[in-house]
């Protein structure tokens, strides 16, 4: 049974801070812990309106999609359909991939492949990929359909970041290749495999693999993108857009309840055999990224597993303890804050950590 906002005032206060900070138009949060289940929301569903976001609302989960995609690939590894450390080129010869690149490297972002959404380099330079920023995205590309093969070939036309397996760099290209790998070895569409293997067995009726559809099921809040056009700041409603530009690296739609059900099932061992779940949780030493999931060692000696996601107008949070017994899932929709991407990310991180600390206090402090 879901409790009311008033039953967990510390959590309601934490999510209200998201809104009061000016970073968010609306927030919805769901927590499962030793006190039971709690769901709450703050802010507004739509700018100019007074209704709060629905606690069972649908939202775009961004890169949280990667945990679903990684789980799907690992299920195929469990079946013996894919070998985790064999060359991906054996299955996808048409792309001319470096034969050292394996499925493990795709899932862990250690392939070195250029990120088709653009690369930020340590010296501060940016190498653009597909149009995904500012006025150009809003006016020209928001409803454009990209094919996954197109995204991969764009990335492969650019220099690699490093030799396969010698570094770590977050690249959406890896997960689009993972989608193509799934489709090649199963002979079925990625969305069909996701439905058959994960969504349907878990009863995730609020979760959607949209492909190129711009629609989002009701109920839902609205997301907004604030961008600068010459000297003028403009706000556009980005609730509807074609997510094919991000594909299996971040296109899915879900709910806080479905994310809880999925992540709890994954971490409690219902979706993968124990040896593969252990492989998933082996973090790269550079940044603590396993196979589609971040592995965070806390100051209190505990561990948190998570994968958040976000893009213009939307952000998602998904956290769990290793046994799946305590979870935090959330959606944030942005409003009219006039901040650049770096400032927005830094401010969002501070507020997010307050919420995570409020839920996982014992794990963080011991």
From TrEMBL:
<dbReference type="InterPro" id="IPR001466">
    <property type="entry name" value="Beta-lactam-related"/>
</dbReference>
<dbReference type="InterPro" id="IPR050491">
    <property type="entry name" value="AmpC-like"/>
</dbReference>
<dbReference type="GO" id="GO:0016787">
    <property type="term" value="F:hydrolase activity"/>
</dbReference>
<feature type="domain" description="Beta-lactamase-related">
    <location>
        <begin position="11"/>
        <end position="330"/>
    </location>
</feature>
<protein>
    <submittedName>
        <fullName>Serine hydrolase domain-containing protein</fullName>
        <ecNumber>3.-.-.-</ecNumber>
    </submittedName>
</protein>
<dbReference type="InterPro" id="IPR012338">
    <property type="entry name" value="Beta-lactam/transpept-like"/>
</dbReference>
<keyword id="KW-0378">Hydrolase</keyword>
<dbReference type="Pfam" id="PF00144">
    <property type="entry name" value="Beta-lactamase"/>
</dbReference>
